[in-house]
TrEMBL record:
Protein name: Xyloglucan endotransglucosylase/hydrolase
Post-translational modification: Contains at least one intrachain disulfide bond essential for its enzymatic activity.
Domain of life assignment: Eukaryota
Residue ranges annotated for the GH16 domain, each copy included: 15-219
Annotated source species: Stylosanthes scabra
Gene: XTH22_2
Length: 294
């Protein structure tokens, strides 16, 4: 009898564990909860009870989604499997952006290519409506055969782009010496798949082959650790802080091992850096380029 009671109690506890709703920032991975499909007339789909999201593109339209919340600082991880085979002309974008004409933006864009030719990862940072801070990379794997994790860390000290946990780019907060830094405007997460064959692949030389349509990119395991911004109040400032939310990302820095990984990517896979493009800036490189390696 006693044993049966213990068993019953255990079952109750186990069932209860599955029923307790956890904050979305901890669970992650439910697109139904965190995002909404905003365009594409059915070409974007949330599947498997919110665990998978697919975007597709055909001649008539692309598609896209955005987060329901806006954030002032965040660490976003998302796994993406990019459009396979001939993806030339297509762009899969994944970015944070604020509203207005003087917006801030943190961009990942994946530029497709012919079968067997490398995808290009294009990154940019806009502050107060001004970008022109492109860095581009090849990847050290084929991003179309499996899901890989692409992350954006945005905290008061810096913005870091990661691929599978490996930093590929850091944009430091150099506000102290006059470089604007995104810190006042809350941003939403956006993602989309669209046709950009006027510029994306080899500068627009290779066009989208519509006989291959529809093109599809897949997303899963979205994890947003962010300071939700609502009516001028940040969730990171609330008293319900510490117990359930691990906000260590808010002060996360690049340790020496991460610095080495960053250097490895920049030495071996970076193919364009605005900070090295002297001919583009005849009046002189942007300030952040002259201060440190950015
Ligand atoms: C596509 O492949 C070509 C040839 O390898 C390469 O030059 C180019 O950078 C690749 N990516 C894009 C987006 O054009
Ligand atoms: C938190 O609140 C304090 C005081 O109200 C304010 O100075 C600070 O900027 C807030 N921080 C965030 C991240 O909102
Ligand atoms: C909440 O978290 C933020 C960021 O970690 C911290 O600055 C703030 O002091 C915390 N507030 C409380 C009431 O614990
Ligand atoms: C918070 O997260 C960091 C990195 O994600 C981890 O190293 C640390 O152990 C976590 N702390 C707690 C209290 O969970």
């Amino acid at each position: 009898m006693a044993a049966a009671c213990v068993n019953d109690a255990l079952i109750v506890i186990i069932v209860a564990l599955f029923l307790i709703p956890l904050p979305s920032s901890v669970v992650g991975g439910n697109f139904n909860q965190d995002v909404e499909i905003t365009w594409g007339d059915g070409r974007g789909k949330i599947l498997n009870n919110g665990k998978l999201l697919t975007l597709s593109l055909d001649r008539a339209s692309g598609s896209g989604f955005q987060s329901k919340n806006q954030y002032l600082y965040g660490k976003i991880d998302m796994q993406i499997k990019l459009v396979p085979r001939n993806s030339a002309g297509t762009v899969t974008a994944y970015y944070l952006r604020s509203d207005g004409t003087s917006w801030d933006e943190i961009d990942f864009e994946f530029l497709g290519n012919l079968s067997g030719d490398p995808y290009l990862v294009h990154t940019n940072v806009y502050t107060q409506g001004k970008g022109d801070r492109e860095q581009q990379f090849y990847l050290w794997f084929d991003p179309t055969t499996n899901f890989h994790t692409y992350s954006i860390l945005w905290n008061p000290a810096h913005i870091v782009f990661y691929v599978d946990g490996r930093p590929i780019r850091e944009f430091k907060n150099l506000e102290g010496v006059g470089v604007p830094y995104p810190k006042n405007q809350p941003m939403k997460l956006y993602s989309s798949l669209w046709n950009a064959d006027d510029w994306a692949t080899r500068g627009g030389l290779v066009k989208t082959d519509w006989s291959q349509a529809p093109f599809t990119a897949s997303f899963r395991n979205l994890k947003i650790n962010g300071c939700v911004w609502s009516d001028g109040v940040s969730s990171c400032n609330s008293s319900s802080n510490s117990s359930e939310n691990n906000n260590s990302w808010l002060s996360q820095q690049l340790d020496s091992s991460s610095q080495r990984k960053l250097k490895w990517v920049q030495n071996n896979y970076m193919i364009y850096n605005y900070c090295s493009d002297i001919t583009r800036f005849p009046q002189g490189l942007p300030l952040e380029c002259t201060l440190r390696n950015n």
